[in-house]
Predict the structure.
Amino acid sequence: MKYFTFMVTDSAAEPYKPEEDTIAQWVKDAIAAGTEFDGDRIRPREEAKTVRVRNGELIVTDGPFTEAKEWINGWGINEFDDLDHAIEVMAKHPVARFGQIEIRPFYDWEAGE
Amino acid sequence: MVSTLIRITGDWSLAEDCTADAFEKAIARWPVDGVPDNPGAWLTTVAKNKALDRLRRAANEARKLEQVAIMNELEVDDVELTDDRLRLIFTCCHPALPLEARVALTLRTVAGLTTPEIASAFLVPEPTMAQRLVRAQKKIKNAGIPYRVPSIDLLPERLGGVLAVLYLLFNEGYTAVSRVDLAEEAIRLTRVLLQLMPGEPEVQGLLALELLQHSRRRARLVDGELVPLEEQDRSLWDQALVDEGLSLLRSGGRYQTQAAIAAVHARDDGDYSELVALYDRLGGGAVVALNRAVAIGMADGPEAGLAAIEALPASDYYLVPAARADFLRRLGRDAEAAEQYRLALAVVKTDPERRYLARRLAEVEG
């Protein structure tokens, strides 16, 4: 099954320690395990633009569309066997420790749901 | 049977429909043809064939064709049935589902209760319960919640989740005294789980705990009135359940420890010296802390018990004033006891508890 993952900040998580960032190993393990995936970090939310069309008029504003305490700073698209497999692999991702990870299954268009 | 079909087809509603069809066919055929030698296998085969028919009809998709191929080779034996039931329990109790959905789904799919039965057990309208079940089944499918027993490294954590659902179910029946059926259903399910995982100490522990508590059900509530342990008529205790519960005690984790505590009360020999150490092993939480203080009172007298309660960190746990009142009453400090009973009455949860506290209040006021 295909899952989208959001890497999200979390003020309650332990502070980021670059020397303990195991992302390189995580990617290596994922490749070795044959997991199909894609993903990357994204630039901080201060650099976000929000686009809206209202009454036919384009409105572009600086910043994210919501004033949230937590924000997305990375993403992934992964093929996993099932939810347990997804949890097992994502639990080893460094952001699970220094932030939090949201796992979202894709719509199954063939099943019409 | 449902669990076998779910494993094969991965489709919960298909599995349920075909099982229902099989039972219908049995009702029509058995009175005419006689009951087959192995009714379970007969039903599973019929349900399997029904599912096969339906999948064939819809077999224009490659994935469904694949399922047809798998099913043609399928021979259902007892080992597979056992494994399927275990998988089903773990799926129904998956932590990705909301707790109330886990409980409802376990009752529906593992215990085979009907939606109206579950709705009435939890005092919610039937459409609400039906919707809860449908949502949970959809989530299993859409989120990819697996239909298998978790791997060894995940098992302790996930088994804990399954036991928590069963114990919640038991307590639901135990606290809401009039609904003994839920407690019995929980015991039945725990027995099933123990059959599936023989020798697993925490499953034994949960079953022991449930049996020891359940053994007192007739003594605990007489004519709708709650009877405290010390005043219970011992002859009403179900000794067979006590014996079975005691036979399941092992050393081990949380449920074994809680069962050991229940066993101290079940033995009823006035020796409470073990109790405090057992509560220490359970550790943490306002409920455990209060029970530990009460245990000190049972072992060393009401004065010590009261002191232990006063030493607890402040908590709004509703049984704290009730426990304090009980010790004050034993010490003959009636006015202070009355004050605590009034506090307890203001926060009490169930009617039998309320009537019990009111009776005690009348005693100390009298």
The domain at 2-105 of chain A is CATH 3.30.70.1060 (Alpha-Beta Plaits).
